[in-house]
């Protein structure tokens, strides 16, 4: 059965969305909103659940509780301990995964049609009756602490955490969702139960399902799966107020290469100029080897293997970030080139050729994302959380192509803020 599942997963991943994705949005009798794509070509279903809030819902003084709790959900449920739960899941040739991010807790499930009822019952038990046995808590806690200690020695992790603390301050975004060694060590089973009850709830739940199941079958299945979840959880945190002061902060760390994180205020996804900003970023630093930053910093000067910029749309903040690594004696020059390119793009904008190349890059790569039931389900649930309509897939490339040279250069003038571009550098940089 496991061999058949592997073959089915491979087939599912090989099915392109060449004919488009037809999304059926409906409410179950139990009041759940669902985005559904029926795909009967193979007997396989992908289910995605997203609980809004994620690690940002950690209680005060309990940083890392939701991260630890998420790692424990599949470590036994109801009458099954961790080993028995894994054996039951594998015996059904099902796949479950649980992950937490700043703003979401995600649950992904993949299963064969013939084992649907048994797989969903096992999933239901993990979502409603996780055991949180002490031996499992101790084992997973040790894994988390090991990861935290590893990050404490990694320049990239140090830079990211220091940059977040500087930009977001006391907001949950300002601290690592894994917590600290001290905060995770102090967590009790009661803390983990409280984290679960505050996070895995119905009123902030988003659902997508893709595969061999009809709407008529799906509604009752989901109502049964999720009926016993609490209706409400902990309140969402307020929006963050990111601070970008345009300064450079250096954190000494013994390493042959310095790591720099940099950023400025971003652009919300629902802003009418978002697609122009997205294309602008492709030209600036998000378009691989053809981006301006990569050309100027790597190709022309050989200062780095890679430099990137990207728009980040969090629930509570919108930021425009980037990163670069370079030798200690060259990181200063790399940063000066980045600052110069940031300012040049603001003042001069992009060329018609750059805009058209960026459009081809974005529109050509977009269909490749829809390469199977699992990826499609993941995309659909993300679309819901960002407030997109079910027509977004069909209209997204049109929105990209609608951006004009005049618009993108106006956006460059208005949204690029070289005077606010802030750097956090970890290493032994010379001349900073």
What's the Cα radius of gyration? 23 Å
Point out poorly predicted stretches: 1-19
Number of E-type strands? 13
Question: What's the rounded overall pLDDT mean?
Answer: 94
Strand fraction band? 15-25%
Number of helices: 16
Which characteristics define this entry?
19% strand, 432 residues, alpha+beta, 13 strands
Written account of the structure:
This protein is an alpha+beta fold and 432 residues long. The protein is built from 16 helices and 13 strands. The chain has helices at 2-14, 65-72, 82-91, 116-128, 134-151, 155-168, 181-185, 189-199, 215-226, 274-286, 292-299, 331-348, 352-365, 373-385, 392-401, 405-415; strands spanning 24-27, 33-38, 44-52, 76-77, 80-81, 95-100, 104-112, 205-211, 248-252, 257-265, 307-313, 318-327, 422-427. It has a 6-stranded mixed beta sheet, with helices on both faces. Helix 4 runs parallel beside helix 9. It is globular.
Précis, in short:
Helix content is 44%, strand content 19%. It is built from 16 helices and 13 strands. Strands 1-2-8-3-7-6 form a six-stranded mixed beta sheet, sandwiched between helices.
What topology emerges from the helices and strands here?
Layout: H1 2-14, E1 24-27, E2 33-38, E3 44-52, H2 65-72, E4 76-77, E5 80-81, H3 82-91, E6 95-100, E7 104-112, H4 116-128, H5 134-151, H6 155-168, H7 181-185, H8 189-199, E8 205-211, H9 215-226, E9 248-252, E10 257-265, H10 274-286, H11 292-299, E11 307-313, E12 318-327, H12 331-348, H13 352-365, H14 373-385, H15 392-401, H16 405-415, E13 422-427
Parallel strand pairs: 2-8, 9-13
Antiparallel strand pairs: 1-2, 3-7, 3-8, 4-5, 6-7, 10-12, 10-13, 11-12
Helix pairs in contact: 2-8, 4-9, 10-13, 10-16, 11-12, 12-16
């Amino acid at each position: 059965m496991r061999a058949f599942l592997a073959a089915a997963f491979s087939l599912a991943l090989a099915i392109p969305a060449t004919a488009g994705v037809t999304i059926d949005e409906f409410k179950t009798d139990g009041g759940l909103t669902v985005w559904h794509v029926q795909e009967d070509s193979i007997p396989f279903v992908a289910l995605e659940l997203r609980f809004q809030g994620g690690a940002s819902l950690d209680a005060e003084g309990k940083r890392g509780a939701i991260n630890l709790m998420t790692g424990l959900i599949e470590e036994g449920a109801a009458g099954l301990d961790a080993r028995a739960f894994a054996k039951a899941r594998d015996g059904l040739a099902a796949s479950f995964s649980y992950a937490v991010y700043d703003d979401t807790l995600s649950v992904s499930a993949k299963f064969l049609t013939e084992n649907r009822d048994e797989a969903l019952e096992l999933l239901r038990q993990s979502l409603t009756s996780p055991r949180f046995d002490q031996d499992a808590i101790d084992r997973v806690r040790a894994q988390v602490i090991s990861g935290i200690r590893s990050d404490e020695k990694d320049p990239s992790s140090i830079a990211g955490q220091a940059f977040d603390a500087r930009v977001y301050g006391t907001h949950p975004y300002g601290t690592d969702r894994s917590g600290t060694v001290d905060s995770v060590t102090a967590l009790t089973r009661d803390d983990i139960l409280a984290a679960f009850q505050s996070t895995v709830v119905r009123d902030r739940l988003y659902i997508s399902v893709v595969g061999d199941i009809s709407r008529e079958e799906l509604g009752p299945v989901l109502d049964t799966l999720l009926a016993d979840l609490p209706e409400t959880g902990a309140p969402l945190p307020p929006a963050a107020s990111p601070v970008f002061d345009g300064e450079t902060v250096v954190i000494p760390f013994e390493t042959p290469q310095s790591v720099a994180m940099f950023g400025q205020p971003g652009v919300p996804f629902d802003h009418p100029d978002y697609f122009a900003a997205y294309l602008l970023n492709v030209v600036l630093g998000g378009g691989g080897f053809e981006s301006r930053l990569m050309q100027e910093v790597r190709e022309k000067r050989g200062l780095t293997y890679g430099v990137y910029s990207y728009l980040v749309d969090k629930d509570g903040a919108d930021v425009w970030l980037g990163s670069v690594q370079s030798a200690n004696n060259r990181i200063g020059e790399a940063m000066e080139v980045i600052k110069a390119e940031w300012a040049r793009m603001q003042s001069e904008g992009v060329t018609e050729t750059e805009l058209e190349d960026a459009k081809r890059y974005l529109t050509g790569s977009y269909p490749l994302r829809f390469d199977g039931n699992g990826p499609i389900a993941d995309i659909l649930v993300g679309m819901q959380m960002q407030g997109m309509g079910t027509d977004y897939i069909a209209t997204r490339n049109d929105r990209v192509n609608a951006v004009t040279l005049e618009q993108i250069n106006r956006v460059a003038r208005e949204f690029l803020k070289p005077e606010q571009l802030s750097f956090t550098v970890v290493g032994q940089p010379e001349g900073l």
